Queue: 2 jobs
Job 1
Amino acid sequence: MINNILIAVIAVIAAPIIGGLLSGIDRRLTARFQNRFGPPIVQPFYDFFKLVGKENISVNQTQMAYVWAHLLFAIAALILLVLKQDLLVLIFVLAFSTISLIMGAMSVRSPYSKIGAQRELIQMLSYEPVLLLMVVGIYMLTKSFMIESVFSMDSPLLYKLPLVFFAFLYVLTIKLRKSPFDFATSHHGHQELIKGLTTEFSGPQLAIIELTHWYDLIILLGIITLFFANPLWVGILIALGAYFVELVVDNICARMTWQWMLKATWLAGIGSAGINIIGLYLKA
Amino acid sequence: MDSYVLILLALATLLPALSAAICYVIRNSAVRNFVVVVNTLVLFYIAWEFTRLLIASNGSIRIDEHALPFNVGEIIKYLDVLLLVTIGYYGFKLKKPLIITLTVLQLVPVILFEFFMTVPEPATAFVIDYLALVLILLISIVGPIISVFAIGYMKEHEHHLHLEKTKQPRFFMVLVGFLGAMNALVMTNNLSWMYFFWEVTTLCSFLLIMHDENEISIKNAVRALWMNLSGGVAFIAAILMIYYAKGTLSVEEIVNTPITGGFVGLFPFAIGLLCFAGFTKSAQFPFQSWLLGAMVAPTPVSALLHSSTMVKAGVYLVVRLAPAYLGTELGKVIALAGAFTFAAASAIAISQSNAKRVLAYSTIANLGLIICCAGIGNHIALGAAILLIIFHGVSKGLLFLCVGTIEQGIGSRNIEDMQGVMKQMPYTTIIMVIGAQSMLLPPFGVMITKLLAIEAAVSLPVVLTLIVFGAAFTVVFWVKWIGLVLTMSYKPKLVMEKLAFSISSSLGLLLIGVLVVCMGIAPMYNMLISPQVKAFHVADKIMLLGGNDGGIWLQAWNGNIVGGFAVLSVFVILGILTLGMLFYLKRTTLDEVRTPYLCGENIDMDIRGLQFTGPGEKAANVVVHNYYFMGIFGEEKLTLFLNLGAMALILLMFGVVMR
Amino acid sequence: MGIISKSRIKSPWVIHVNCTACNGCDIEVVAALTPVYDLERFGIVNVGNPKHADVMLVTGVINNRTARIIKNLYDQMPEPKAVVAIGACGGTGGIFAECYNVIGGVDKVVPVDAYVPGCPPRPEALIDGVVAALGKMEEKAQQMKQKIRDRKASHAREAKANA
């Protein structure tokens, strides 16, 4: 029990630090791809502290509460991940994190904010089925929804679930807000609908949203490591590799429309995950 | 003890009939309101007593046929014919040959069966087990609360329509009398008596949808009538077949027929027909149009009949029959049909902006999920089905009442017009938001049952995919609605709106009900649902899945759930969110508030961002609507081919039982 | 220097507003974001949203309509904030100062912290201007804290008076 609490606390403190550094590496590498220098790797932390030090303004009274819920759900999901709990519940808790942010954005009477929220909803609509099918695919191999059962498998999940992994990369692109799927609000340096979803959040609220984005990043990379859980360092390498691939895709692709994203994610994502699962079902 | 149970039974079925008669005969509104309230309190008491007695008697209260003071069977025979003649009369009056045909198709078998064949009545007339108790609680607690709501609502409704002569006596007669019929339906063990009460509910639904007596309500009432009547035809056909195959009309004996050796000949076909009747009653695809059309009725009707109770009769029948078709091909097709409806209705709901239609589609979807869980048939799924019956009945009833109140408050039932309703009607809005979230988030029940359904369905990949799609769709339309309703700009103080006492008290009571069932999920599961699932003898029939150990429930050594970490944490976070909202509502000062971003064109004094400076320096309104995705999820686009798919599934269902 | 003060200087987010400019200065601002001058290595990000921004770069002269807009955008920015007036037009109105519709430079509407003269100024001069504006951030932060303290005190006094 004490062990669990310790692990959870360490994870909650370490994840944003690692997430922030990864974000910084993201900006640095993107800059290098674009033939420029780019900010220092610790830049996200400068951004974070600057935002914390700004005046706390808001457009309506209830925004801040939603932002806190957004963060707390993400932390809960992280704790579920490191304590190796139920994967299906984790997916739903992550979904509630996004839902809180969407509701916070919709609670403001601003066209940019509301349209950004609607687009974020469409994003959720496209990737939720893929995530749930991924969980089902993992279940079919490990016969349990608990994450700890993944660690006791003899062969890595990746060998039997390659298409599911590919589908998950689509989800990763959407969740990390990378082109071609970054139209709810795109990440640094880019603007879409001004800032879309996060237009009316500022100062400390935006700082917390940034922090949650780092937690999200770590949770998603953590799920990727599950695909190659033994030995864990290979899984971590694959996760970092996938992250690098996302950066490359971001720099190559242009932003597309939501109709395109819906079609692409459902066809490629659900299609490949579905084929993989049916394959497993027929073999079993 | 036995006579006490008999008295409770009589009260549960006949008291509402008596109250109904009084409401119709005595035309004084104060007397009527008093009778409705007394009826409510007595039904609460009855529900409580049944619960206490059932737990004390370890899961089964039985009332034998010969213990009844008079020959109920005889009376029901004659009432049956009278009922069918009444329905035929309405068909004649409204000049609808389809109705007359369907009535005759039922009348002939009924007369043949009841009067010309000597059919021995089952020895046990009424059986109350945990499943029946769950439905009784729903009918006798949620139902009367809705009838209390109707007091305030109908007064305003008739005032709105400028009616000279009040139609409330007839309205309350049918509304309250219906409760007695439903109680009897879930308690009876005799299949032909169940058929009678089933058709009573059909008639009640028809009369209530037709209440406003304008062209559109008559059209929709007739559609509801013929669809339910076709279910009735299937029902009576099934009764004949079951009697021919098994020689009994006792529901208990029918469902406990062992699969091997018992599921042959006409019997599976009869079960298929009964499930078909359940599908029509619960407005599954392709029969969903009657429920959508029924939304023209006054809100208490929609809340009581078309979400909490009458449509639950259909799924009750399907769940009751679950042990009969477990593990068979029929079960798999039923699961498929239910999952298909779940996904299809949730998809179309995304494109609807009429609040009652969204609720109707959501109801159809959840009923589909219950049927799907019943079809999957393992112990997780059956538990999820019963849980969902409870949660959905309470939450959807609450939501309909809130939408009705808001509709009377702002004069529109379009979601787009509900923007800013938080400031005009905070009491109703907050209750509605909690109700809508109870359909969406844990620790509220509906989400937990969705999780359970996904976990239970892993053995059927197509069913699983449909459930997964449906779950993703439901999130979209609920979040759109809740987000819009919670839109508010800075307001220093929220003023609670004025509501009639019957309305505000019924809303409050139902809200407490929602919170109680959600927080009490663990004891409820242990006391009511787990024993029922064990009673279904599921374990004997099919291989139990490995299932999930841990996660949501922490399994104690005796198989009782203790409660899970994940659910608790979400509950805590939601609590923090609510407290946070209250905190920030008070603490934010005007200095901290800024206008929304409108490219700098805000009108100076307008901190709410309602207008911007348009061309020619004129003020223009800011208008933002939700997306409705008509191109992808539009009702006209999807309905035709979804109906065709559903019809194919129904044909498949009959196909697998004819082999 | 505390971490927050250091971060304010290391991460200035910019909103670029074109009042009525001929786009000469705006092209220089945008050029500063390109790889040749690369503003992002200083942590400068062009956010288009006043609520996210620390520094407002204004080009062009002020007339009646843009006065209203600049004031609105300036109000939407959270403290501590700075304004940099770019170019001759932004500073004093430039060659258009005596036009019938021109009110003047940016400082007629909002307090300006740095002027970057030129027509158009070079990107290096722009960066210089932003750095100069950032030098005042610390002082502005102190003013912001004082303002918040005063506000809280007056609210407390009001609450006492009403009770």
Note: The first helix of chain A runs from residue 2 to 33.
Job 2
Amino acid sequence: MVEKQRGAMRLAACDPAALALGLSGGMALADARARVPELAVFDHDPAADLDLLGWIADGCERYSPACMIDPPQGLLIDITGCTYHFGDDGVRLAKDLKQRLRRHGLTGQIALGATPDSARAKARYAKQAIHALPVEALDAGDKVHQALRRAGLKTLQDLACRPRKAFAARFGKATVVTLARLLEEEDARITPRRHVPVVSVTQNFAEPISRTHDVLDTIATLTGKAAAQLNDGSQGGRRFEVSLFRSDGHIARLAVDTGAPTRDSALLMRLIRERIDALSDPLDPGFGYDLIQLTVPTADILLPSQAGLDTKVDRSAQTEALIDRLSVRLGRDRVRYFEERNSHIPERAVVECAAQSGQPQKDWPKPAEAEPPMRPFRLFETPQRVEALASIPDGPPRQFRWRKSLHHIVAYEGPERIAAEWWRRKAGHEQGKGGPTRDYYRVEDSEGRRFWLFRHGLYSETDAPIWYLHGLFA
Amino acid sequence: MTQDAVYAELVAATNYSFLRGASHPADMVLQAAALGLSAIGIADRNSVAGVVRAWVAVKKAKAENVLPPAFRLVTGSRLVFADGTPDIVAYPKNRKGWGRLTRLLTVGNMRSNKGGCILRFDDLAGYLEDLLLIILPQSTAEETNPHKNPVEYSHADGGEKLRLVEATPADLDEVMLRLKKLAPDRVWLGICMHGRGKDRRRLEEQRAVAKQCDVPILAVNDALYADVTARPLHDVLTAIRLGVSVDQAGTRLEANAERYLKSPAEMTRLFARAPEAIAESQKFLNQIAFDLSQLKYEYPNEPVPGGWAPQDWLEHLVRSEAERRHPDGLPPKWVRALDEEFTLVRQKNYACYFLTVHDIVHFARSQDPPILCQGRGSAANSVICYLLGITSVDPVANNLLFSRFLSEERDEPPDIDVDFEHERREEVMQYVYRRFKRHRAGIAATVIHYRPRSTVREVGKAIGLTEDVTARLAGTVWGSFGRDLPEARLIEAGFDPDNPHIARLHVFVGQLLDFPRHLSQHVGGYVLTENRLDETVPIHNGAMADRTFIEWDKDDIDALNLLKVDILALGMLTCIRKSFEMLRQTGGGDYSLDSVPTEDPAVYAMLQNGDSIGTFQVESRAQINMLPRLKPKTFYDLVIQIAIVRPGPIEGDMVHPYLRRRNGEEKVEYPSPAPPHDPNELHDILYRTCGVPLFQEQAMKLAMVAAAFTPDEANGLRRAMATFRNSGTMPEYKDKMINGMVQRGYQQDFAERCYKQIEGFGSYGFPESHAQAFAHLVYISSWLKCHHPAIFTAALLNSQPMGFYAPAQLVQDARNHQVDVRAIDVNFSAWDNEIEASALRLGLRQIGGFHKDWAVAIAAARPFTSLEELARKAKLPARALHLLADADALRSLNLDRRAGGWEARRTPSDELPLFAAADARELAQEPEIALPVMPVSEHVAADYQMTRMSLKGHPMEFLRDMFAAEGILTCAQTDAAKHGARVKTAGAVLTRQRPGKGNAIFITIEDETGVTNALLWSRLFERQRRAVMASRLMVIEGEVQRSKEGVVHLMATHITDRSHELERLSHDHDVNVPFSRSDEFAQPVYPRHGHPRDVRLLPKSRDFH
């Protein structure tokens, strides 16, 4: 894994094989390459790492609700009072966790400690004896570590047996506090990771429910409750998450996103139903759900709007609702709009994008005043081949035949010469392999119709250029 | 097609419009001529940097009769304005117009940071006399970067008329009307037909507007490249300029390939509806009477006192000095030499040049203390330079060839290079600016070309390769510095050359190499003029403060016959000056460069042992090996010693014949020509080098005497030898030389060998004069090392960075010479390394990151008895205290490194005002904390980390038991081993070098007993690349090879990286045994016969900065 750090590509993480070759994190990629030319590298993706960590944390909620991600690579679980499943034995819990991780192909370093700091330090240094840990376990910054080491104080043992006053005078109180926590003399609680959602409503069942109908009914009730809570705060949700806790510990989560903030429970139910219908694997209730939870993780301000007496419809809101609805039903990628792209080639100048992916482009270039449009109103997706008569080498067309009818050209403007995008062709940089150049003409025929024609290939590129009709002006 | 169409393209850019033009100036003009254009106008963006190259190309092509004689080149510049004014292309009508143009550009350049030019319409209005102006309808300006504190520069010369400030015109009509008023009959509207769709409509519109304003229209193509095939390259350049890849650049690329040079027929066809625009190009051309050859050049007159003519003053100075040196009358040889030189100088009118150099040297010597300086290079062939004190070599006594410096036949200016102390060169440079003023003095430019590494990186990015791929590709270019990216390199790096992306990269890299990338300033070449320099060439701000440089480089200056003085920096001169100073202070005598006792046998005895670390030039690995073989006994042997360890003599296979002859193992013979020629003709040339040509002058003389070359031809041969770009012309000289020699009765076989030897100089040989000048410094530095090793080492350390070796090695060498080296200590050390009762006391400057003003404060506030007192009295910040503690410089306060560091942590730094009054001790006594004792190995490691050396021991000492148990020998044991023995040695890596053709890697390792030199053949290297490149501590296994002079080499077969063993010393301090400065892996140097940028007549030694 490589990452750009301090202006150079550096190794961010190595697999065991690379470590065995003497490579390590922080090394410049160029140096690593020089040593191992056959090195395989991939871009470091910290976001993906964090996602994975989040996924693991989700799973760990089975042990305790108090899980906390300790970036970049750590996970803290407060198991105080949560070990009854394992016979009040933290070690057995740890073994269980380790096994589960291994099943997913993950290697974890697990340690138990009376304080989060001590547990973290033990895990990090893979040692159970806190006194044997190096001073770096203090995590107090390189300068402090260096200073301690320079003074010959290399392990926590060296620190533990010396008067703390001397450390406080040099490295500040915080260091001493950390030391106390590491030595399990002082405790600190962790902040659980799942941040408090804007709205959270739950429904408990004494008897697990398993029929889809019941589930939907419950969700409908919950959305109603949530909508009421949102309304109180003049808020509208942007994301709604339904968590279905199965009695065997499995959690199914469904989420719907909306393009604009909403608290319309009918709309939400429609979206949720569509989402459930669209699931590739239908909901598997197993032995039934014993708890259903609806949370709104993100919300925006949504002021109540007064519908006017003339019931004027908010068009953009309608469009967005339609886009949301169609996108949920047909799939995100199926509802699309146009976006301008940076290319000289007309058919590549504009592309389609998923409508939900962002705001549609609003600032289309405006034509200059008193300038005729240089691009046609209608552009054929595939240019249509025509037979045309033109003077050599690069004269305008005199007449052309399209769909069997002959058009005599009475006026023209051009050529507008657009060269092919050579970089899209395999050997495009070589002479004559960059693709044919197009000469576009705006023409008007004897009946006043206006066309956009092009000659495909200059005479220096080909002997017999072919003509195409690429679009129609109004 | 109309054959009789006459047209001249007047708006053409070259690749000196950086990242916009895609053709070399020469390609542009040759293509223009080939297309039948009547002329071409080269106009780069706010620059005239490329015009000289175009002009040279035309001159050369005309001389070779490949250009129609009527073809013309006109030179100007495309003015791009920062205020929104459309681009205007300006051509000077005459010499005066050229001056206006260059001054206009200078005005813009001076406002901007290096490389930029900020012009406004008003500037043009102030300088448009004698300029012809073509208005282009749009502006191509981009954001500009104004200079924060521009250097003081006088633009005014009193000739300006009072005028109102011209505001920026609002639109095209207004530009035309206003310019028309300012410059009637000198304004055109340039119209292009680039296939934009509405070209015809626009032509009509603009024609109408132009007619209204009574401005003629002119057909131009605004060409960016010579041939239509250059479009992909141009797109790549655009992408590089925009910092994106080609496929993301989209509409910011040109839509089509129409910006190539078009033939008159094609232009006529495009402008069929406006034939007057085509015809106008001829009318425009007819108004231009300017050609670059009109740039007449006058050397500054300042140094001549009133009432004297420059030549007379020069002769007066030289002759009075000659008489002073020869009170009994000049020997006839001198009279002849002086007469010859004076005649030539008078004829060429170079007197002012010599006087100017003399003036600069005189300034340096008159400073207090004087700045040491010495001329180098071919100037040492001149008696005038010798007598003016510019050079220190007596050319008469040494029989040097004056025509190497200056000759009648050769129409090129002489080149005087003077070295100054590297730390004080800036004083000399600022003196030059002061004396001649900024508008009359400028440093020459150096054109930075695209080199393989940068090209691969930039092109790779532009064609969309990811950074790690380009980094890997750029990485593989290490060691190869060819013009091309050889396929073998690609395969080596694991890329398939047939992969389309790689193939594309390969092609573009090939095309882009040698393109100019940007202008930089030359290391020290000044161009000075009597008249305004900015009326000859635009002046730019340099990247360094207070430096201004001109737009033309050395080749351009040569082509235009401008003279330049090289003011170079030499570290050894600084070191020598500091040594002399310390000698004076310690009562060791008062010496100067010429008063050091000569021909001291002790000095030669030392050198014969290869004991030369720290000395000038002969301290390199190769030189140290050569010293015991050559065994220098006299000064002239040093001259040979310097010259022989060069790629030239080595590749020309002259080293062994010379050594054999010198040692009497081979007969010294001088082949003779057939009668009637003088049978001794070669003897006179070659007797001093035992019949083997070692110097450039000898090669020239050999060609002149034995093959009857004219001096001119001999000089051509020299140039061909020196510049690889001309290597294509070497074969011409080959036939001429061999045939010439055979005709005069030499054996074919001998002639071929001679030629081969001369060919070897292609990869640089030394001129004898240069070797003489350098040998002088070799001798002085060796003398200092021999008799005053402590002072010499202190001076070397105080002059860092310079030379081949890191401080640790210099100090180690001094200790080996029984110098008592004392550790850094706050109560004794100053900033500099000093002599303390004949011992060397290391200075605070050796502590990485320490500031000089701290050191000065410490020295002023001494003595101290506690850390607190030190902090208070010297007002040191916390960082300084920590550095002192970490460097273990507090021993005299009874604090070792650990205790010092611990104490420093709680010592308040800079006194707080609140406590300033309270003089009492503020810090309470602390309970004893009893820090663990630091082992010596850790002290050594910490010493290396802080000061890059240790007096307490060598890191290897602490690993010795472990290595000994493995049967690994010390360096000393290896040195004593028998020839042919297979041994293993371990040590810290000092240098790794891959000289010459790269067949072998030289590795030097060091341990507590000394050094071992190992040689690894490159085929073995490839297999052990990782170990060689990563090791800081390596075990080398190999066979001992002992030469008959006793030089021991370890022929390495197997190398193991044991760097991790260093961690055993300390976990907290990186044992960073520094590579010496000559290590090529840590500081890659480009092989010498490489890029045109590096081509100099004299190779750069590692010593010049």
Note: The radius of gyration of chain A is 33 Å.
